[in-house]
Amino acid sequence: MEAELKEMLNDLDSLKQSLPDPSNLASSILKLQSRVEHLTKLAKSAPVRRTKVQDMSAEVVDSNPYSRLMALQRMGIVDNYERIRDFSVAIVGIGGVGSVAAEMLTRCGIGRLLLYDYDKVELANMNRLFFRPEQVGMTKTDAASQTLSDINPDVVLESFTLNITTVQGFETFMSSLRNKSFRPNKEGSGVDLVLSCVDNYEARMAVNQACNELNQTWMESGVSEDAVSGHIQLLIPGETACFACAPPLVVASGVDERTLKREGVCAASLPTTMGVVAGLLVQNTLKLLLQFGQVSPYLGYNSLKDFFPTMEMRPNPQCSNAACLERQKEYLLVKPAREAAIIAKMEAEVLSVPEGPLHTDNEWNISVVDDSAPERTDATSSGDIYCYMTL
Amino acid sequence: MEAELKEMLNDLDSLKQSLPDPSNLASSILKLQSRVEHLTKLAKSAPVRRTKVQDMSAEVVDSNPYSRLMALQRMGIVDNYERIRDFSVAIVGIGGVGSVAAEMLTRCGIGRLLLYDYDKVELANMNRLFFRPEQVGMTKTDAASQTLSDINPDVVLESFTLNITTVQGFETFMSSLRNKSFRPNKEGSGVDLVLSCVDNYEARMAVNQACNELNQTWMESGVSEDAVSGHIQLLIPGETACFACAPPLVVASGVDERTLKREGVCAASLPTTMGVVAGLLVQNTLKLLLQFGQVSPYLGYNSLKDFFPTMEMRPNPQCSNAACLERQKEYLLVKPAREAAIIAKMEAEVLSVPEGPLHTDNEWNISVVDDSAPERTDATSSGDIYCYMTL
């Protein structure tokens, strides 16, 4: 198209030069008209966006972008899929994991996505999914908003180009999480879940601080610097360990993330590991929001051995985070009532489904299931290691 | 841009009408020129493709698309990452799993990708990653080639718009796998691995037939019709069960895929499950090709419980597939020498790394790790169920 436009400029120049001689003008104008008509055709072949849809239809037609999601209801997996449009999810860090998580939630038709990043797209990011070479130089938030709104215009996108570890960035982050304009009658904060997809310790601590202050459930994710391991973790203030309760697992396993960005040293990364971690993260997000299956408290991915460790971490009564200690106190007050409700629900399920217990959990090594805890008839399968770290 | 062009046509019309009055012409021409300049700017903001690179550099600069992959060498994961450019991978079925697998391999800089599909992109596919609404109506092979070549022009792409379950389609499929022009001195067929990402039994049987005939290692993948489970499986003709050796697991678990496409009935699907399965598939592909970690013979993904069963399946001496029986005979001849080599290698490793033996393979009918088995100090971790099905 550029060459076409250049020629048009030349034509206009010769038109100008022929000004004293109007006899040539008519043919010049005709020539210009045919050029414009050609350009119009070219412009028409450019991307057409799909229009917004009012309701999620379950109709099985090729033109319905939601038919395969609404089918989750007919398959008995989800009671009411369309509830997904009520939910807001905040994604902090739009890198190799966060961008894919954002795309998955967008394609699932999430109600509202809040995106936070301060970085720009580089060619060095092209070994992970999502960003495209033509977006190099754009902010990750702008590039993501562009791609995501093209994919699904039904999703309300809000993007924030900021660093949450700065004072100003943290304040904006907090106020954006508090904003309840999308669903004014919602309890708690303005979002249903925060997904941390950042690549450094400071940013994780900032998300932890914000979520502890707001009593906001969040999920943490991470990928090792050698690119072959990753994890996701559910954090419910007061109920589970917060990020400050325990030495972060990445540090505990011998990787100091603060050294990763040393000059001239870059961490390895793979689209596979990051895609798997994003998939596990968003799958657990869907399970949490749409209430199906079991949400994993912690799930690791060791890709060299295809090993997926699970565990649970209890809050640390000596946690250094004051907001965490507040949430722990609140949780201890509501805990007896909650546990009674869980036991009543489990008993009702045992009565309605005439099956024996699936198995009794085995005990080994790292640590063991507390025998005094209610029996897990649901069970995360005989294969899982459950570590209840009491700190 | 369309509105802009329409106005330009209007301008040209008024220019024509002002022909008898040349005094207005100069200003009209100036107006047109500024319009063209504006259009030129718009055209310049259109996608720019990245250029091909000669060698994979490990240089840590933002403009290097391979820096984070070459870092796998420095991290001690891969001996020689650049070998990836020698490999050809065929992907059959460019749907929810195949398209993402293709994108991952493309971003990893695989040498050559062969893509097979006969379907077109529909809006109903938008709940899975990869295809975009503006590609609706294109063949999946064309749309994929367009996106993948923009992402990484270094990858040699060959796409085949055909149905491998037809006689003609199967013949083209076979001859394309045999074609060794990319690496003429390669042993065996012209590809290093076939990835089956199809959604029906007949297509899987066609891939099985081709791979048995060509003695071609392949990996099978699948996602359940309720969208919440999936699996990958490694098939080495003669050495592991082929797809005809055992009743396919999808059928064995009570799902008849042939009913899925019944009129008015559509299977559910999720970008999460398909993204995870694609990630596990390509991660195992990388492990196989670049020789790191352990390739899983079978890996399931039960997303409701985040449970990942593994098992191995031996070939069935009564398999109905004649080519499989041929491969089994060949394998039995080389087996003693191969096993001796494996034992020698393991003994060498035990001498160099002072660790106990990994474990001895037990044989039984779907069941769990025997308590009397040697302790798994390595390995696929105490958490996994290992089922060795002897058929």
From TrEMBL, chains A, B:
Similarity-based family: Belongs to the ubiquitin-activating E1 family. UBA5 subfamily.
Keywords linked to the UniProt accession: ATP-binding, Metal-binding, Nucleotide-binding, Ubl conjugation pathway, Zinc
Organism, as annotated: Populus euphratica (Euphrates poplar)
InterPro entries found in the cross-reference section: D-isomer_DH_CS1 (IPR029752), ThiF/MoeB/HesA (IPR045886), ThiF_NAD_FAD-bd (IPR000594), Ubiquitin-activating_enz (IPR035985)
One GO MF term: metal ion binding
Entry keyword annotation includes ATP-binding: yes
Record-level GO cellular component terms: cytosol
Pfam family, one: ThiF
Domain THIF-type NAD/FAD binding fold: 66-320
SUPFAM superfamilies: Activating enzymes of the ubiquitin-like proteins
GO biological process per UniProt: protein ufmylation
Protein name: Ubiquitin-like modifier-activating enzyme 5
Gene behind this protein: LOC105125309
Annotated PROSITE patterns: D_2_HYDROXYACID_DH_1
